[in-house]
Amino acid sequence: MNRPIVHLFGLFTLLFALLVAFTSRWSVFEAQSLEDNTANRRPLLEQQRVPRGLIFARDGTLVASNRQLGNRQTRRFVRRYPTESLFSHAIGYSFIDRGRAGVEQSKNDILTGSGNEFASLIDELSGAQEGDSLRTTLDPDAQRAAKAGLGGRRGSVVAIEPDTGRIRAMVSLPDFDPNAVRARFNELNADEGSPLFNRATQARYPPGSTFKVVTAAAGLDSGRFGPNTAVSGKNNKPISGVPLQNFEGAQFGQVTLTEALTKSINTAWAEVGTDIGDSTMLRYMRRFGFGAEPPVDYPRSQLAASGVFDEDQLLDEDDPIDIGRVAIGQERLQVTPLQMAMVAATVANEGVLMQPQFGERAIAPDGRVTERIRPDRVRRVIDASAARDLAGMMTSVVEKGSGTAAQLRGVRVAGKTGTAERGAGVNQAWFIAFAPVANPKIALAVTVEQAKGTGGEVAAPIARSVLEVILDAKGRGNSAPAAAGGF
Asked: Which of 98, 294, 369, 441 has its CA 20 to 30 A from that of 274?
């Protein structure tokens, strides 16, 4: 074979190889990312011809259904949402011209029947393709209680079962009616209240004193501190060379760690954080899930990590961090409500972090359960004995500290308030909690933006109303009268 023919053969071989590589890139290696791209409408066009699976709340309430348009040849299905805005951020939406969001996106394989390739092939050949329905973990009554508690104020509530990770409530205000997304998407997107933005999973806020629970967990589990360890609560104590003040300049002497949490003494907890040190504190933060997107069955594009930030850059132990102020929820610490609900749930579950999840089971059109979504353990964060000690300390906060407004009749509640000053006389008000203390059934995080009061005054009563509904605690026994707490 002469040289020109060899060169020509080599050129054609190279061109063929390039063709295979580029074709494989889109059809094989990057097929999933291409399908998930919101600019790609082809999968949506195809799926619009298939009846999408229904979505139900945990009590059977229909949350998402279909409306048929056209005749047999032009038949297509359009999504409708009977509960309107009640589950807007958790469930999301699915429309041909607006893409997908929320559980509608993360559980798309189930809802379109494309998760089981063999079954999908048979369905296509028989012309009977139809998506599986999804029963979620969401509780309509808890959702309503959370929305009512927020009372139209911007903020969020997330409630999780500690031992399963099942999300019972996720509310973000302002919210939206998914039925209006097709016609009003641009208007909703431009709204100054950002109703399409899920504050529960995407918004990063300073956590205030709720973060002292993480600091306490690190101190107890590391063996450096115990509930009765004495620490100084002196006001204006130098931390990293700069004096730190307690809430309203309160002065304390030697107090136990339990008293320091009950009274939310800044200088005591800053000293604990400084003593623990950067690397240990950051290690425990990572165990709780800080520094990474939460492992929840929700679209990655709608999740934000929690941690210490320099603008949008997450910092670690190699960066200059004032760990004493991080320990009390200050410095450049930013968290999502979901992350703080995970913190409360981990303590409630004796130190074990469970994967948060919206899905409970998938159901075929013929009624068969095709998939049961089992609870999934992420990791042990702290020892069970440390978690029990911390639960006792958090119970003191609700019984005689800043969280008394979260008390329930006949049910012991463990919690922690948080108040992050935002300037101009307003605060980011927080409360995290779980109950009942002896056998926790639910853990939650509540936050309110631009609050005119403290976490104990603003967020704790919201938590109480949600806990009351989920636990059906009304009228059980007696408890001390609830008094609005402080910081």
From this structure: 294
